[in-house]
Amino acid sequence: MELVAAINRAKYDVFRWRYELAIPKKIALALGVACLVGLLAQVRLYIPWSPVPITGQTFAVLLAGVVMGRRWGAISLVIYALLGIAGVPWFSPQAGMPIFSAGGVSHLAGPTGGYIIGFILAALVLGYFTDRYVKARGFLSILGLMLFANFALIYLPGLIWLGIWLNIVSGTSITIPAIIAIGATPFIVGDILKIVAAATVAKSITPKKDYSR
Prior knowledge:
Distance between the termini: 26 Å
CATH class: Mainly Alpha
Largest sheet: 2 strands, antiparallel
Shape: globular
Number of strands: 2
Order of helices and strands: HHEEHHHHHH
Helix content: 55-70%
CATH topology: Arp2/3 complex 21 kDa subunit ARPC3
Structural class: mainly alpha
Number of domains: 1
């Protein structure tokens, strides 16, 4: 019992410490989260019929809001997007490209740009609920939130932009079922596994009492 109490106290202290950090230290932590997202973006698997790769970065994205909170979780993904646009080569490379070779505004305008916008929304929403509501930190609650964040907040802008990009590239109208088959269906099983893993980590590290007041 004493060990459990000590672990729970340590988790509370860490999150309380993160909540009370000065702005420069929060920026440093947000940059660290952005670096983790960029690192996991290099872990990718390409499938022949889709320009969108399977990557490990959504695992870090789903935890960003939980670890950093609503505001700074979203800021960490904004940093990831802005530094990538500025030229930091940490976007997920296209097929045949070496790791850490994709950066610049042209990549954000490519087929995966909408998903990156969705990353920011997902971190914002997950951070809001897990910071504000203690009950949201249970496994089933955070699992449900992460499923919503992944399949609604990340997929929706991702598929909308992918459809626009495919129409521009092909010069012909692409149907909604075809867009879903290219930009969503191949990734569902892998995303569910990453969501379960992220929810397990989130449940394990978050304190079960309020640390924001």
